[in-house]
Structures are given as structure tokens and as C-alpha cells.
Design brief:
By secondary structure, the protein is an alpha/beta fold. The chain is built from 10 helices and 16 strands.
């Protein structure tokens, strides 16, 4: 094993603006040898996420460590066990862990999760952001039968699943937001959205009022900014607003983006607003995998995603995610 090498993607500089190729380096290093209690995994698929732009900064407000300069980046990945001395895992087992951005990963046994073969039709589905979507719909926005639901950032890896889950929960009308007419068409035709408001096509509040003339009962907010303000303005009495993401800040080249909120308006209409984060709801992951597997098989759920090929495409995958070039999750096959 010691004579073999593999490739990793290292961060070599911190961004001062847009994410560019020169911030990354593809490095060839020896394949590591596992000690007792460690697992060597050959990674097969990795995912990229908007939070990775935040983690490229030296100081962040998210409860995750920043990427280190001269070190591999990290993130969710699926792979096959190569060797796992002193553990219950065996070669060929399908596992998930957080050491993506490399072709082989050396992980402590406690840091990998074994998946049952065949639970999902495509193992890449384990890298969906469905647990976050399920959390926001069920625990944040508390979507109920008959609700009108507004999902901001509807074409992302989270939003494209949140709209589908809202439909499963009995929502009467699901409205999304996105930045391109092409994505809007796909959200309506393929992913269960009844209407879409378009960023850049006029004031979001005006568009949302037209799409939801009777108001909004539940909000799944991935974005913040003008879209959150519009959601509050159109929200019905007793509406529930889930703050699930902050794309307005995460994708703004690291510049903080505050959202002014009229608290008296929230009070007078008894509107609930809460932030929800997956690390407080990890029990939802196995529940989501069961729901997702069943939904993929019976056609009630789909997995919107794009796949790029080869670890050298990982920096491009993150750049294209940030630029909004894809609908759904963005994955890299290694």
C-alpha cells in the first residue's frame, strides 16, 4: 500500500473575493496505512455545499472548523472500505464520512457510518441534503396539510427537496424562489412547485403576493435578505418561518449581509421565526434515508443533482455551485 499514491485537493490561499482556481492545488500524496481502529476508504463520490465558501475564510460564524491552508478541504463523501484493522468493518462495505476532497481517506472507526447495501437505489443519494430539508419542513416551518408554503433558494440541493417534502406533508400550494427562468420552469414541471418567484424580475414581495394571494402559512428560508423580508410581509397570522440557510451571506464573497426585520409586525401577527440546524437533529438522518429510499422507488421523490467527473473537477464543482449553474445538489465522482 505504501508505494501507492492518490490525489487530494488542498486550500493554498484564502479568498478575498470570488472563489478562483488559484486558491486550490491538486496534490499527489502516498495512500495512508490504517492502524488498529482506523478505516481506509476509497472515496467514490463527494459533495460540495455553500457552507464550504464560508469555511474557506479564516474566521467564520458557523460551528465548524475553517479549512486549513496547505491542508485538504473536507466534506461529506461516500466510499468503500479498503482495510479496517481492529474494527467491525470489512473490505467492500459502503460507508459515509466527512473526509471528501481526496481519493482515499483515513478515518477513525467512530468517524464512519456504514450504510446497508441497497437502501437507496443510488449510493450518491446519501449525499443529498434531504435531512436538512426534512428538518426545515417538519421542525422549523412545521408544514401542515392545506398550508401555502414558500421556499427560498428552491433550486439548491436543500430547496429542491424541501418543496417535494412539503407536498408529501399535504401542502396545498408550494412556491419557490430562484434566479433563472430555466430553473423556474424545471421547479414547476419536475419538482412539485406550483409557482416560482424570480430573483431579478421585480420586487420579490410583489411577485410573492401575486403567487400567494391568500398569504403564506409556512416559510422555509435558505437565503435571508429581501426574500426573507418579503416572506414576512406576506405571512399570515400564526405563520411559522424556519431559518435554514443564509445564502445571501454565504455566497456574497464573505461579506456579511444583515436583514432588517420589523419585530412589531411579527408580534402583531403571532409569527414564529426559528433557526434550525442539522447538528441539533441528527436523528433525522436515518429517518430521511428510509423516506428517501421509499420515495425514489415509488416515484414520490426525485434526487435533483449534477455530477462532475474526477477529483480535479472538485474546485470547479464548488465554483459552479456558488454561481448557481446547477439545479439541486452538486456531486463529484472520484
Amino acid at each position: 500500500m505504501t508505494n501507492r499514491t492518490h490525489r487530494e485537493v488542498h486550500l493554498v490561499a484564502r479568498p478575498t473575493g470570488p472563489v478562483t482556481d488559484d486558491l486550490f492545488e491538486i496534490v499527489e500524496v502516498p495512500v495512508p496505512e490504517p492502524a488498529e481502529g482506523q478505516v481506509l476508504v476509497r472515496n467514490t463520490v463527494m459533495g460540495v455545499a455553500a457552507v464550504m465558501r464560508t469555511l474557506m475564510d479564516e474566521v467564520t460564524t458557523v460551528p465548524m472548523p475553517s479549512f486549513g491552508i496547505g491542508e485538504p478541504l473536507y466534506g461529506s463523501a461516500i466510499g468503500e472500505v479498503v482495510a479496517a484493522p481492529g474494527t467491525d468493518l470489512k473490505p467492500g462495505d459502503l460507508v459515509e464520512h466527512h473526509f471528501g476532497w481526496r481519493e482515499y481517506a483515513l478515518v477513525d472507526a467512530a468517524g464512519v457510518h456504514r450504510h446497508e447495501p441497497g437502501q437507496l437505489p443510488d449510493p450518491a443519494g446519501y449525499l443529498s441534503q434531504g435531512p436538512t430539508a426534512l428538518m426545515g419542513i417538519d421542525h422549523g416551518a412545521e408544514v401542515r396539510p392545506g398550508d401555502t408554503v414558500f421556499v427560498t433558494g428552491a433550486a439548491g440541493g436543500v430547496g429542491s427537496l424541501a418543496g417535494q417534502i412539503a407536498g408529501l406533508r399535504g401542502a396545498a400550494r408550494v412556491i419557490g424562489s430562484t434566479g433563472s427562468p430555466e430553473k423556474a420552469d424545471r421547479l414547476r414541471k419536475e419538482f412539485g412547485y406550483d409557482a416560482v418567484v424570480l430573483r431579478g424580475a421585480g420586487p420579490i414581495e410583489e411577485q410573492l403576493r401575486a403567487a400567494a394571494p391568500e398569504g403564506v402559512d409556512a416559510v422555509f428560508d435558505n437565503v435571508g435578505g429581501e426574500q426573507l423580508q418579503a416572506a414576512i410581509a406576506v405571512a399570515n397570522r400564526g405563520a411559522r418561518i424556519a431559518l435554514v440557510g443564509a445564502l445571501a451571506t454565504q455566497l456574497s464573497d464573505g461579506t456579511a449581509s444583515a436583514t432588517p426585520i420589523d419585530t412589531l409586525s411579527l408580534l402583531s401577527r403571532s409569527i414564529t421565526m426559528r433557526g434550525v440546524a442539522l447538528y441539533d437533529h441528527l436523528d433525522l438522518i436515518p429517518r430521511w434515508n428510509e423516506l428517501f429510499g421509499q420515495g425514489l422507488r415509488d416515484g414520490t421523490l426525485t434526487f435533483p443533482h449534477a455530477r462532475l467527473q474526477g477529483i480535479a473537477q472538485a474546485p470547479r464543482a464548488l465554483q459552479e455551485l456558488i454561481a448557481g449553474k446547477h439545479l439541486g445538489a452538486v456531486l463529484v465522482e472520484l
